[in-house]
Design brief:
The structure holds 2 protein chains of 2 kinds. Chain A is of the alpha+beta class. Chain A contains 8 helices and 20 strands. The interface between A and B is large, with 41 and 31 residues.
Amino acid sequence: MTVGTPVDDRYARPVLRVDGGVIDVRGVEKRFGRQDVLRGVDLHVAPGTTVALLGPSGCGKTTLLRTIAGLERPDAGTIAVGGTALVGPRVWVPPERRRIGMVFQDWALFPHLDVAGNVGYGLPRRERTAARIEAALELVGLGGLGRRAPGTLSGGQQQRVALARALAPQPSVLLLDEPFSNLDTALRVQVRTEVHRLLVELGITTVFVTHDQEEAFVLGDEVAVMSGGEIVQQATPAELYDAPATPWVAEFVGGANLVPGRATGAVADTPVGPVPVRHPGSGPVTVLLRPEQLRLRAGTGAVVELVEFYGHDTVYLVRAADTVVRVRTSAAPTFQRGDAVSVEYAGAPAVSYPAG
Amino acid sequence: METLTPDPRAVGRAGPARLGQALRSARTVPLLGLSGVLVAALALLPLGYLLVRSSELGLERVLEVATSARTRGLLWRTGLLAVSVTATSCAIAVPLAWITVRTDLPLRRFWVVATALPLAIPTYVGSYAFIGALGPRGILQGWLEPFGVDALPEIYGFRGAWLVLTLFTYPYVLLTVRAAIRRLDPSLEEASRTLGRGRWSTFRRVVIPQLRPSITAGSLLVALYTLSDFGAVSMLRFDSFTRAIFVQYRASLDRSMAAVLGLVLVAVTLVVLSGEGLARRSAGYHRLHSGGARPAPVTPLGRWRWPAFALCSALLLLSLVVPLAVIVTWLLRGLEAGEPLRLTTTLVGNSLRASAAGALATVVAAWPVAVLSVRRGGWLARLVEGACWLGHSLPGVVVALSLVFFGARVVPDLYQTHWMLTLAYVVLFLPQALGAIRTSLLQINPRVEEASRMLGAGTVATMRRVVLPLARPGVLAGGALVFLTCMKELPATLLLAPTGYPTLATQVWNATSEAFFARAAAPALALVLLSSLPMALLVLRERDRS
């Protein structure tokens, strides 16, 4: 461990030697009783990158994380980290021998040990030195707090102790289970940024679970969207937002107007007028129009039903024909409830899905 | 990426890991299961051997004994005693619970503590005190003799047993009902008042129905206690089941008869226990609110304030002051007469050693069962745990009797050694230790154990470094509870302690049987002091909650 120049008052920058390992999950299945929780999941995480497992509750994302950790044993499939098979036919490496760091949702700090005892827990007896523990604490900006009891720390501090504890044994992979869900909203953004910076600087391979789209987009180099025990789509946040694989993903990763349309070649006829589509076709389709891709103008054909002002932007609920669409503009409201308007599409060729 | 092709490093790690894991799982998981099964077998041993022993008589003879006029008489007397004690306990405890929580009774806080204290007096010590005061050659008789009174109303028999058992077991009802009253949501009563019901009508139609589950639960505790109590009925010579079993065993050659009587008693106990199970389940429908944020209003007693105070005082006098005064009087008389106190130190030493062994063995036996039930679950865990809770329903005299048979016949080398007594303690008090350890294990966040695994500690290391330290308060509390209960235990100690190994409990019993009241005083006092320790804890905790 070497200590570099501090970047801000909270985080010194001692660079922990980690060689981020590749994570390779193939065909993992898991049943609880008669319920299929994971149905043949494939997940690939490149060395040193961060992947967010995003999905609604009950989609299997936490189970997948716990399977990688070795806390759940899959019924089928293989898992390898850094080229070492951990799970496979006749292979089972118990969690304590995987060298994987994990931060639990409720942090799971040992209540009978002080902060230093927690951080030093995973170190072999020889390496369990005060200097080593202090270095890990400084990594997360908690230097000097080693003698405190975990219960006396704030939520944000406990979170960082959990992170220091997971990182101290120098794992090649870090797993985070809903790491920020136990923090209140104001603290969450701040801690998230700090953790983000730390992960980037360490270059450790990270998988984290979240149900919050914003969190997944901010922290993840890639986002794997899960639903019903499967990974529906794994892509960079930008790709995911721009070209969601299914209408469900489109709605899950951001505001989406899914409007009915009829395609004729590269254009689809929709309630908000003709919209260019990415994949030419013909027949009934569902077209994805992001609210910020729509423009309002005084005119005819549509009526403003509701105005929601958010400060940095304004959202209008507009009825055009039988369809209600959300339109997001970056200014203060210029239209009122009941105003007659026309809606037009101003984005790149849109994504469309076969209707049905 | 060919990540699954095992590179040399991977083989080096995963290969031994695989073997190690196989060995480890073979060692730890079945080890836990195996020790659990072993403990369950020990817990089932007394009942099982009782069945074996009875079956030697042949089914026909067993049925004959079980339905004989004598057995029916015992059932009648035992049942009558249980019902009478339960009824009087409720009659005392329910109003007492109300006035000590919700009214302006003078010195209310004092009464909250004082009314629970009789629980600290073992019933055989209480019996000793009443016999020492009212029995032939007792204190009162001595005082009245100069006036020509040579016979007092009989203390022995039904009336004595009824009085003593009521006085020293009513706190079971008191404590459960009081807890329920504290959980009552006062806004329900206020709602009733705004709907036009008066104070009394509200009490009858709103409060009592909410208290019914707790009254039932407390009553069943008292009934169970009465069924299995040996000390009071044997010392007060009331011929109920436990005494009859003991006499049958001591006096006659046909010991299988005692075994059959024991089985009948176990059956009766199980019936009452299943009643408890039903009551607890139906209590679920009466689920009470966690209590209003506001404290419940105080009901003024008005002109009943001082009569209520007088009644509380009378109860305290009878259940606490008189017994203690009698014990102290006999202690002083004994000291005057040169009763050797040295004997008492031997008794204390014997009791401490036997109880320490019992507590240690019980905690060691309870640990794997608790871990199994909290962390593993499944049918095996449920079965093992169920077997261990059985001790809860076995009267001490029955367990002791069965182990005497078992020791004499099957393991004569262990018979008349401390091992048999310790085993009896384990069977009888396993539920206590199990309850305490289970509770402390349930409070441990399973994520914490997983965190330990993720940080490289195996199952054994996790047990040592995380689970045991976190469960330590529960283990210690369970051990202490069992220790104190062993100190007070009478029938099993009487039957199974090696000859020439008197303890505090057996000394009180023996000396009282022979009317050496002075000799029983010091051990009786020691027992009361020891028993008040957990009582003090209980009462303090109750007060913290209020």
